[in-house]
Design brief:
The chain has about 400 residues and is of the alpha+beta class. The chain is built from 9 helices and 14 strands. The protein is elongated. This is histidine kinase.
Length: about 400
């Protein structure tokens, strides 16, 4: 029989007393791997599924192929266990069945298959042990289903937590809004007195207070939208003008150690979004970038237009539609993220920051906002190589930005 063929039949040595224990027609097509070993532990028969699990078709009766046709057996922790130390060898001494034995088959190409084995000793009429039969269940599909179920349960749990957070947020935002309304009214009453005083310093302080109150009011609006108590207001937005208007705020947020570079393309087209939410998303990404560069670095925020289709943009959400997109990129030169962190980076309440330094909601809210705008959010990152977040929004109309290409804004 060719050793490179997986389309095999059960191998039954002529005259073998073990052959009588195996029904050829029934065993060959089972979805469970089945094989026989004689009293010395040599493999003497196996079916197609067993060979599929092993990834090869070992020679029947070869004294070097003992206990199992697989290259290696591993514990569930990935530690190699010599065949002579496994229950497959032990059963020849104890003469007792081994049930529900979980192990991992490592093939010669390095791939691994988790299995569940049930090993039964075989005896002749005189009670002499002839060997054993092992039925091996491939657990790959079952484990995939278990992981999918865990993801669903986790998503449900997170959804329930987010619902509670939304309820709390709504109450806090309303109270916050009431206080801001009082502050805004007080500032309005102060405005004429500030103008009368004709003091440039006082006017500057007044403008800072007014801007802070307006931004805080926008934050309260975002919190209310997050709790889904108010409908979002969409408008036609020039991304370049938004980023230019935010430059001073972003510089303040990231600190003096980090160089801010704006690279705004003149071909960036308008998009339809909520202006305050877009500003909050960019600011959130900028703050995360700052935290990833404690010793300083460069933060680049850029815009450009891109045509996306399913062929060149495979990592899309379910709401994806091919077409022209305006892309806002936030790129840092920070510490980057390991693959295990990258997989969870948008999960609600997931954070790598120390207690009290972050809630784990920021990136989740950014993703939620981008999805609501029918956009796409992607991230690329490697340890020590920084991170790049790209916000893709469907273009709105044919109008292009009036911003100058390659605007550089160092500190």
């Amino acid at each position: 029989m060719p050793k490179n063929s997986l389309s095999i039949s059960v191998q039954l040595p002529a005259g073998s007393s073990l052959a009588s224990k195996l029904n050829h027609e029934l065993i060959e097509h089972l979805p469970v791997g089945v094989y026989l070993c004689d009293a010395s532990g040599t493999v003497v028969a196996y079916n197609r599924k067993a060979a599929e699990i092993w990834g090869e078709t070992p020679s029947v009766g070869d004294s070097q192929v003992k206990f199992c046709g697989a290259h290696k057996l591993l514990t569930l922790q990935g530690v190699h266990v010599p065949h002579e130390q496994t229950p497959l060898a032990e059963i020849l001494v104890t003469r007792k069945a081994v049930t529900n034995f979980r192990t991992i088959v490592e093939r010669r190409d390095g791939s691994r298959v988790p299995v569940l084995a049930n090993i039964v000793p075989l005896f002749d009429d005189a009670g002499t042990m002839l060997g054993f039969m092992n039925s091996v269940q491939d657990l790959r599909h079952q484990i995939e289903q278990e992981l999918a179920q865990q993801h669903l349960e986790s998503a449900l749990f997170q959804s329930q937590k987010m619902e509670v957070v939304g309820q709390i947020t709504s109450g806090l935002a309303h109270d916050f809004n009431n206080q801001l309304a009082s502050m805004s009214m007080a500032l309005s009453l102060m405005e004429k007195e500030v103008e009368t005083a004709n003091s440039s310093r006082l006017s500057k302080y007044y403008a800072l207070c007014k801007e802070s109150v307006e931004r805080a009011t926008g934050l309260a609006e975002n919190l209310l939208r997050f709790s889904r108590k108010r409908a979002k207001r969409l408008e036609r937005v020039d991304p370049n003008q938004i980023l230019l208007g935010m430059a001073s705020l972003v510089r303040t947020a990231i600190g003096s150690k980090i160089l801010l570079n704006l690279s705004l393309a003149p071909d960036a087209r308008f998009l339809k979004a909520n202006k305050q939410q877009l500003e909050s998303a960019v600011l959130n990404l900028a703050i995360n970038a700052r935290d990833a560069m404690p010793d300083g670095g460069t933060l680049t925020i850029s815009t450009h237009e891109a045509h996306l289709d399913r062929a060149n943009f495979s990592h899309h959400n379910s709401n994806f539609k091919p077409g022209s997109y305006t892309v806002i990129s936030v790129i840092d030169t920070g510490c980057g993220m390991a693959p295990e962190v990258l997989d969870k980076v948008f999960a609600p309440f997931f954070t790598t920051k120390e207690d009290g330094q972050g809630t784990g909601l920021g990136l989740s809210m950014v993703r939620g906002f981008v999805n609501e705008m029918n956009g796409q959010l992607t991230v690329e990152s490697e340890p020590g190589q920084g991170s790049c977040f790209r916000l893709h929004f469907p273009c709105y109309g044919s109008e292009h930005s009036i911003a100058i290409d390659g605007v550089d804004q160092p500190r």
